[in-house]
Amino acid sequence: MELLKTTILPTDDKALALKLFKHAVYDTPRVLLVVVGTGAAQDSLVQRADKLAGKPDDPRWVIWARDPSAIKKEVGKFKGQQVSLAQTRAFSLSLTDTVCDVIGTAEPEPDLVRILQAYLKAES
User: For position 57, which CATH number holds?
Assistant: First the structure.
């Protein structure tokens, strides 16, 4: 798997995972798609989102929280749509750290169009 614009949070160090997550959200001007969990569907989602993230200087980026428990409290602080990590495949964050779209586990596996919609909602 070749990922160019994805930060994969560690699963063995929750403090480091939270630190990396906070840095990506608060310290860098980025539109983020945060992918939650593991499995074949999540692998595919991350790969597709990474491809749609654009060139290195573009503001779109991906964070992959394979163990979402490390970021749960921080996610609860965001404005916008509520995120239940247990029922979420991914969610998009705007430059103002607002949750703009949630791709739920009840939805079918997201295709490129659905992922692009999540990015576009965060950019508008």
Answer: 3.40.30
Across the strands, what pairs with 34? 63, 91
Note down pLDDT in tens along the chain; length 124 residues: 789 999 999 999 999 999 999 999 999 999 999 999 999 999 999 999 999 999 999 999 999 999 999 999 999 999 999 999 999 999 999 999 999 999 999 999 999 999 999 999 999 9
pTM (2 d.p.)? 0.95
Q: Give the span between the Cα atoms of 69 and 55, in whole angstroms.
A: 30
- The parent domain of residue 25 ranges over 6-123
- Asked if residue 1 belongs to a domain, the reply is no
What are the φ/ψ torsions at residue 88 (nearest 5 degrees)?
Answer: -125, 130
